[in-house]
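Exam revision sheet. Question 4 asks you to relate a sequence to its structure. Input first:
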Amino acid sequence: MAWPTLRTPRLVLRPLALADLAALTALHAQESVWWHPFRRAWSDSETEAFLERKLAAYAELYAGVLRDERMCLCGMLAADYATLPSAMRDAVVRFFDLNENWLGRVLEAGRDQGTVQFNGSAHNEARLIIGALEGAMLVARPYGDPERFEAAARRLLATLSAPAHDGLPAA
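Answer key, structure tokens:
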């Protein structure tokens, strides 16, 4: 499922696409856009690294939840999926679908740019990453040690910078 395009009388919000990179680079080069807090325009290499930073920020969402001694609500609900009312089951699936689709697009754009590497489809790689992050949260929780999760997340993201690895088979 694709992310929707939201339209208002003055604004159109749509998902970022690889075709937007040139325009995004030009936008980042305008000092008026990035003057605060950077006090300078972004270079081409900084703009290209944008997608890689998005992956790190995504993993940090999970880490922050764990540091606050909480867990991913949909991850917890998924554990009891069969006992949930239909509307809740649909919402849990939608949560994971939205995350997989967004992350798959980020991964595909990163692979097209050459900033991340993996074998197989971006969608399957997104499934692997989300499953690994959810699982790492579950394993770290009883230890009360967010660093266990953070170490696993760093290792997981490091595989995207290494030569392409054998992930899940392509769909």
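Marking note for examiners. Residues 120 and 169 are 6 Å apart (CA to CA).
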